[in-house]
Amino acid sequence: MLFYRSSLPLSRQTLQYGTGVVGRHRRQTGSEERALPAGMQAPMTLAYPKNGETFA
Question: Model pTM?
Answer without folding.
Answer: 0.66
